[in-house]
Amino acid sequence: MTLQPPVLPAGDREHRAVYDRRPLERLLRINAAGLARLADPDGDHDRELIVELLTTSCLLELARLASARLDLVSHLQAATDVLTELFPCTGCAIELHAPGLDAVAVAAGVPPEVPAVEAPLVVAGDVVGRIRFGPLRIELPPTDFFLRAAEELSTGVAAVVEAERLRRQASVAASHQAASSLSADDVERGLRRLVQALAAWPGVVAARLDVEHAAAGVPLFLRAGWWDGEGPHLDVEVQRAGIRVGLRRGRRDTGSTPSEPALEAVVTELEKSLERIDREHRLARESETDPLTGAGNRRRLHLALGSTLARARLEGERVALLALDLDHFKRVNDTLGHDVGDAVLVAAVRTLRLELRPWDELIRSGGEEFIVVAPACDVIEARRLGDRLLAALPEGCASALPVPWHQSASVGVAVFPDMADEARTLLRLADGALYRAKRSGRAMVCVAQPGDALSRMDDEPAPTPPHVVADRVLALDDALARWSPAPPDQPPRPDQPRPVHDGGAGPRRRVLARVRRSLRGHRPAS
User: Fold this and answer.
1) Dist. CA 197–CA 247, nearest whole Å
2) Mean pLDDT of 355-373
3) 188 and 132, same structural domain?
């Protein structure tokens, strides 16, 4: 996925408008007039004075470049333009090999294969490059212009090289900070910040970050910057287990793009953060896991569904919710015992996980009910997934059941945002579709329909309002308080225990308990 707006190199983004060429254009007109006078052999003029004026104007423009805050390549390219346009040489080329930066080579005019003049570029006493001049277009008196131009350019290059180093360090530091500060609460947002920081490296026009790691959940394929139609070409790329990071440089390489070792260091920080988050997730899952089956509990359901729907809204993806219920499971418990029932539940969870993707969430929402949260899954894929689950369960649970018992299931499917855009409604739709599957004969998959959210509640007894329950219980309690069973007419024999007369309190408590249970709404048995 491509993030917009595109991120351009800092130099191109900030400095193109800083260097104003209008003074250069005025100098060009003045120098053109001076060159025309120099080219006139019959003219009456001071050739040495005119050469000195040309030299001064060129050196002033080179000095102005040093304050223009250009990136390294832009600075050197502008310098070659100035040298070829303000001085009568046919071409100029500059090569720079500054420590800690990539080599840079720029040229203007006709690149001199055999330079007429060559001068060194010196920074802090070290030769970091050379400037080569082509032949002159007109014959000039002897001049020290070339050495003076090299000295002036060296002064500007020293400041620009230091600025490039600082930009590089800042960009790498920002990426390190983004990679090391990933939060377990929102891993995807942190990874988006990281890929944007990578795309802002000097000389980089685009960055790519692919993460297939348990800490990230669903596989993420993130992009930032400017991706044209040239395909997925990457100039610098680093791959680790579950991580792939790549950078694309601009057509004009700034010479300061952090190298592969710098990118390796960022990826190492990213690996450490993902492992840390994975450990945090595993610790958190212990409190969100059903101790019997190892599936998630209702706490994980709410967390997983909330984060999955939030991501789906951001990415425009679909999310499928599958509600699954084991058919006639109560008969297994009542007939074969709870130990067999527990073994069936464990086998069912093991079987379901084999059919699910690594990033799908399996939740045990009730005794024999399960919910599957499937990101990036539309209704067709969800229906196929439900069919696979139903086909696998009988065989998967066979080892826990005696012959001829077998375990089937029913599945209800609801899809976000096609059927609902809110978690509560989505759960009710999936639950209603499940109940419709059970009423229709069980062992089938039903996709939610608009009425499913209400159909299940229509079939269940409506719960009595709390104030009505309270009034009925108080009235019944008052009536029972006035009723007391009479003591037995005949006294017991000496060898029999004497009955305790409690004034009717025992029967009253038992009757009240039965009434309270009858006043509550109960879900029909599966």
Assistant:
1) 11
2) 91
3) no
Q: How far apart are CA 300 and CA 347, in angstroms?
A: 21
Please tell me which residue, 411 or 315, carries the higher pLDDT value.
411
Distance of CA 103 to the CA centre of its chain: 34
Tokens, residue 451:
């009425």
> DSSP for 137-199?
SS------HHHHHHHHHHHHHHHHHHHHHHHHHHHHHHHHHHHHT--TT-HHHHHHHHHHHHH
Structure tokens that stand for 426 in this block? 């989505």
Domain containing 344 equals: 293-459
Amino acid at 63: A
Asked if residue 214 and residue 241 are part of one domain, the reply reads: yes
Amino acid symbol at 311: R
Burial label, 232 (beta-carbon count in 10 A; 0-12, 13-18, 19+):
exposed
Q: Assign residue 199 a region: left if phi > 0, alpha if psi is -120 to 50, beta otherwise?
A: alpha
Question: Looking at per-residue confidence, does 446 or 56 come out higher?
Answer: 446
| Residues shown for the chain | 526
Q: How many domains does the chain have?
A: 4
DSSP bridge partners of 321: 373, 414
Statement: residue 102 has pLDDT above 80? no
Contacts for 484 with CB less than 8 Å, ≥ 6 apart: 503, 504
Q: How confident is the model at residue 218 (pLDDT cuts 50, 70, 90)?
A: confident
Tokens of 519: 């006043």
Tell whether the model's pLDDT for residue 322 goes beyond 60.
Answer: yes
Is residue 31 included in any domain, yes or no?
yes
Do residues 13 and 160 share a domain?
yes
SS3 183: coil
